[in-house]
Every structure is written in structure tokens, then in C-alpha cells.
């Protein structure tokens, strides 16, 4: 009985985090972007500095009509938002927030592979949406999404493989147990490659060619309205949370910190994740969008060689210290 | 791995789940080849490959299961959908995609299935996996058997994939010299504002990079 209760409790906690953290990132994005651009951002909803803006947005989305275009492929069109969103919930389940068995939703033996595999699945949601909408902009968006995923999946995997080599395990909790502070400079190239590839996979600026609102009108999501559109947006912000959490766990030492790792490990994890999420928002405000050929060039001629160099370095250091 | 053969009459929960997932996988596989909508075929393929990953999981081969999802669902199907969208993927039926080779294809499929079934059944007739004991498909166990017992086939496969990669690059570069310059790349005047001009090494066109992409996916496999 206690087992069932334990599992249920973990699922509830992870689900609550899944609902709250993306909204938190979204609200932060509103405010941070506004202040970086010399505006105030939302100020009225909820009273204090517009803290309830995204709740209000959610209510608004829920009230809107759910339109399916006449020529669209109905079932695929309606299924796509769920396919885009659910993988991130599953990934959140395996990210350890603190030391020990108790601080992870479900410890998975091949944690890195699980996380990266499931994150890749969520891109299928965008592809389905892009095709099923029967809209040229959507189809273009879907195509660009696919091209981008194929280009950036490889460097992301290679960078993650480097950490797995360093730790001698592919389990996320195992990697954190093996972490030492000097891994930070050792794996810094891999960390950058991983983070940049992850941004590209999430289609965040400056890699937002697939959803470029000013030229293909939000790409695969052009035809979506109401709650389904909100689900796609939620998937984007859940993706930011998952990417920052994974980068924290793989490269920044997760719950390790200068002090207080025993009781306050989860604070370190959340803090590092929050700083990375801030960087994601910062990049959106400061960099122009990359063109399609620049996107491909960056992946194949910069990130892949860098990731391979990181793997070579990891191997050499690993052999030397043994 | 060879235990006393358990009976068939009192299936455990895992066995029942295995059978049910197998049925779903089989159904999805059949739909993949019988549906008349091209993209639906690719999406049913996702279900079939995902079902296969669940089967691996039920057999405690966790590592293989996630690699299956990563490579097949995450990369191969995306590549497939990319190809479909790039060429021809109408919404609704595509009758022109049917060919007269259906009976031949069916015969080949039946023969291949028969051969595979025969080989697998013959090889593993008396082998049983003990699901209760320590997991036999963890990353550590898979890695050890791969790099201790099967290291030669593994390396041979790597060389094969490398050959495929080189071949793909050679094939896609063959047309490069007689192509007129810069037809398939954005010209500087058309480029969106803020975009940097493409340097001399930026030419080369999408075909070469596309091949690199396909080759890269192959290499991961």
C-alpha cells in the first residue's frame, strides 16, 4: 500500500511541477523581455506586477473556439498537440532534483537515452501539425522543423555521450553521484554544444526559423486556435524547463553546490535551472533569427566537430587519470 | 538463461501484457502497409516501432528499448516524414501511390516473415528469460556483451556504415561541377536584412548538406 501511495505522490508532484514551472518561465519571459526592451510588461492581471497574466491567458485560450480547418486531416490535427506536449512530462519524471533515491520521479537505468529519445518524439507533434493543417505555411514549418531536428540531434547526442563517458554510466542519478567540480571546465565545450542544440530542437530564438512568425506565421501552428494552440505553447515552455534541467544535471552538477548539498540540494538544481532559463530568454531578446542555411552550417560544421573534439578530450583525460 | 520451461496455461501479467502489446504492434504494422494515405502509413509506423520498444522493455532490455525510440521513432521516421513532405503528401488518399506489385510484395513479405520466424524459433526454442531475477538488458550488461563477445561484428558493422556514409557523400557530390553556380542558395540581395552574407565556403547547396544529414543519421545507427 505504501508503495502505491509513494508512486502516486511522486506522480502528483511531478505533474504539479510540470504545470507550474513552464508557467513560471513564461511569466519570467514576459517580464524579463519587457524590462530588457524598456517596457513594463503585464502589470494588471492579479494585482502585483501582473503575476497572474498567464492564468488569465489560459482562461482566455480555454474560452476560444476550437477550429479544425475543413480540408485538414481531422484526427492527426487534433492529436498533434498531445504528441508535442506529453514527452516533456515523461522526461521531467526522470530528472533528479536532489541527492538520493527520494528526489527523482523515477530513476531510469538508461536515463540519458530515455530523456533524449523521448524529447525527439515530441518533434513528431510539430510534424503532424504541420502536415495535417493543409496549409502551405504549416507544411513549410513542418519541413523546417524536421530539417532542424535531423541536424541538431547528432551534436546533442554526442555531447551527452561525452558526459556519460566521463561518469562511466548513462543513468542521470549515477552521473550526479560521480560529479566532481573540475568536470565543469573539462566538459564546458560539450555543455555549450548541448545547450545550443537543445535550443535549436526547441525552436527557440535564434533558432526559430520553423515558427518564424514574421515570414511563415508561426509555421506548423498557423491553423491552431484555443486550447490546442495553448498546449503547443505550453510544450515550448515545458521544453525550456526540461532542457535547462537536463543541462544542469549533465554539465553543471545538479544538486552539487559549494555548501548545503545534503538538505538543500534541490535548491541548487532549481537555481541553476532558473539561471539557464534566464539565459534562454536573454538569447531570445538579443539575437536575430538564423537563416536556414546558416542553421544547417552551424550544426554540421561547428557543433558536430566541437562535440567530437569534446569526446576525444574526455577520452584522453579519462585514460590519463585512470 | 535456460530454465525449466514454464507452462503456457498460467500466464503471468507480463506475458499477457507482452501478447497484448504484440497484437497492437502487429495491427499497426499491417495498417502501415495497407493504409491508402501516405503520411498515415508513416504515423502507423511510429506506433509499430513504439510497440516494439515496449516489448523490449517488457523483456527487461531497457537500453535497447530507448535506443529503438531514439533512432527509429526520433530519427528514421522524422527523415521519412521529411521526405514525404518534401515530395508528395496530399491529405486524403493517394491512389497513384499504388502499384501493380502488390501480390509480389505480399509474397516477399510472407517468405521473409517465414524465414525470420523459423530462424528465431529455431535459435531460441528452449531459451527462457527469467524476468524475476536481475535485469539482463541493462546498459552495463548490453555494453559488456557487445564489447566483449560481439566486438568483431560490431566493428564490421561500423565499417559498413562508414562505407555507406562515404558512398552517400560521393553520390551527392557527383553533380556539383556541372551545376550552374549558386542556383540553390539564397543570393545576397534576397537575403533577409540582418543576415550575414554567405562566404565562399557557404556555397555548395542543400543537396550536399542534406546528404550529410542522412549520412549522419545512418552513422548513429
TrEMBL record, chain A:
The UniProt record lists the keyword Cytoplasm: no
Recorded superkingdom: Bacteria
Pfam families assigned: NADHdh (PF00146)
TM regions (residue ranges): 7-26, 79-98, 110-133, 154-176, 182-200, 229-253, 265-286, 298-321
Transmembrane found in the keyword field: yes
Membrane topology label: Multi-pass membrane protein
Reactions mediated catalytically: a quinone + NADH + 5 H(+)(in) = a quinol + NAD(+) + 4 H(+)(out)
EC code(s) of this entry: 7.1.1.-
Protein family per UniProt: Belongs to the complex I subunit 1 family.
Role noted for this protein: NDH-1 shuttles electrons from NADH, via FMN and iron-sulfur (Fe-S) centers, to quinones in the respiratory chain. The immediate electron acceptor for the enzyme in this species is believed to be ubiquinone. Couples the redox reaction to proton translocation (for every two electrons transferred, four hydrogen ions are translocated across the cytoplasmic membrane), and thus conserves the redox energy in a proton gradient. This subunit may bind ubiquinone.
Protein name: NADH-quinone oxidoreductase subunit H
Species the sequence originates in: Streptomyces pyxinae
Lineage: Bacteria, Bacillati, Actinomycetota, Actinomycetes, Kitasatosporales
UniProtKB/TrEMBL annotation, chain B:
Region Disordered, residue ranges: 176-221
Location in the cell: Cell membrane
Membrane topology: Multi-pass membrane protein
Major localisation: membrane
Record keywords: Cell membrane, Membrane, NAD, Quinone, Transmembrane, Transmembrane helix
InterPro entries noted in UniProt: NADH_UbQ/plastoQ_OxRdtase_su6 (IPR001457), Nuo/plastoQ_OxRdtase_6_NuoJ (IPR042106)
Residue spans of biased composition, Gly residues class: 201-221
Pfam name, any one: Oxidored_q3
Transmembrane segments: 16-34, 41-59, 65-84, 104-121, 150-171
Source species, domain of life: Bacteria
Catalysed conversion reaction: a quinone + NADH + 5 H(+)(in) = a quinol + NAD(+) + 4 H(+)(out)
EC number(s) recorded for this UniProt protein: 7.1.1.-
Alphabetized PANTHER family for the sequence: NADH-UBIQUINONE OXIDOREDUCTASE CHAIN 6
Family of this protein: Belongs to the complex I subunit 6 family.
Biological role stated in the UniProt entry: NDH-1 shuttles electrons from NADH, via FMN and iron-sulfur (Fe-S) centers, to quinones in the respiratory chain. Couples the redox reaction to proton translocation (for every two electrons transferred, four hydrogen ions are translocated across the cytoplasmic membrane), and thus conserves the redox energy in a proton gradient.
Protein name: NADH-quinone oxidoreductase subunit J
Species, as recorded: Streptomyces pyxinae
